[in-house]
Amino acid sequence: MIMVSYFFTQKFFMFPLPVKPNVILNSCKISMYSIALLLLFVIPMGGCGYSSKSLLRSNVRSVYIPIFDNDTFRRGFEFDLTKAIRDQILMRTPLNIVNKDEADSVLFGKITNVYENVLIEDTRDNIVESRVTIGLEIRWVDKRTGRVIVERKNIHAPAEFIVRRNETLTSASNEAFVRVARSVVEAMQEDW
């Protein structure tokens, strides 16, 4: 690369380099050693605090998840939300979902609100784009000791839908269920 730049400057621009190519190569070797030495010290610092262990409490290996309560007028949402949370726990954690009698812990939850907001209307007041937001609270209890492991009151997740794409409140709600289920799993993980 250095020789190529030397060639281009000598042949195409018709003015010589102020130093010879060997000097350039030697200074590049020095700077390469400096960069390598710098990286040797900087790269290990980037991994500080990283751990490959699970972020869940090590003494809890199983969870029972009853159907969540629903304090809203939208009936049936509690079943879909509970299923989404179970799926996310199975996908993203080492926890086993078991029956109530076999569980180390129980995850209780309640849908506290479901909001639907119109984002865009056309000139005839038809809905073009809308948003549904699911709100819930959870309480994760160690069944053996009765101690509350995690309690969160304000977990919300929105999802938008566009009517002209044949998206519906149901499809947006399902997306919001997955998003709020991810938030539940994140809440169950230990703080760093």
Notes on the structure:
This protein is α/β, with parallel strands linked by helices and 192 residues long. It has helices at 2-11, 21-46, 77-92, 169-188; strands at 62-64, 69-70, 96-97, 105-121, 127-142, 148-162. The chain folds into two domains: 2-46; 62-188, Rossmann fold. The chain contains four helices and six strands, in the order ααββαββββα. Strands 1, 2, 3, 4, 5 and 6 form a six-stranded mixed beta sheet that branches. Helix 3 packs across helix 4 (169-188). The chain is flat. The two termini are 46 Å apart. The model is unreliable at 50-54 (pLDDT under 50). This is Lipoprotein. Keywords: Membrane, Transmembrane, Transmembrane helix.
How are the SSEs ordered, and which strands pair?
Blueprint: H1 2-11, H2 21-46, E1 62-64, E2 69-70, H3 77-92, E3 96-97, E4 105-121, E5 127-142, E6 148-162, H4 169-188
